[in-house]
Fold:
Amino acid sequence: MRRKLTSIAEAAALVRSGDTVAVGGSLLRRQPMALLREVARAGTTDLSLITWASSLATDMLVGAGAVRHWEGIYVGLWWHGAAPSFRRAVERGAVTVVDRSESYMTARLRAAAMGVPFLPVRPVLGAGVSEVGDLRGVVCPFTGDELLAVPAATPDVTVLHGYVGDEYGNVAWPAQRDSDDVDMLMAAGSRRLVVSVERIVPHEEIARTPNLTYIPHTKVDAICEAPFGAHPGSCDTVYDEDEPEIAAWSRAGRDPDAWPGYLERTALDLADHDAYLDAVGRDRLERLAVGA
Structure:
């Protein structure tokens, strides 16, 4: 196995201006914030995002002027309301949007994971959803049923945040976890895969429970350690959402005059992820830990 452990900055550099980027996580959970702060600090622009149920990651990149297009099932701050920078950019026409159903996005990602150009789904014609435009009719060769073909997702790079991994890029999840996401599908269908994890552990620790390795080293291009790498969101089983910070994010985002200063203080003007942890307060972060 080849060593793939890098710094956060080196891993984030695999995301380049103009790329189509699949961003993992679900709602406020496991958004790859440490990696994407580096992407924003680098001045990366003209990104097209493919997400599942996204929140902080998409809102931050849009608020940093890094995004031109988004495709997925949801962007918002969950119980904190709309994702304000995303909403404002869409209303201004600065970001184009393709709003997908969950079944459509699952089929897109699963087709990529299987290495096939499309997967068939049951027809949704007449449902009034925007996805109809890029579907193609197919006939099942076995039953004669009329189906619709969904094209495989083809991002240039996929960015995920996970639990633990080793220096070779094997990523494991805990035995007990939430699972309402598609990170494993995104990883399986990726062209270039960048993963941050809460902890880098010895390979022997990963090898003791191989059934928990949901991303094998063969798929990973770069892995980096980023404790509290999803903050102010959560990493289930590790730490909870930082509710006051997400509320502050939401307030700043709703005010176009306040947002640039907030983004500078929490991302753009910070040297790296360690500086971010210091700025938030390491004692405060530890109080978010599950069981603290």
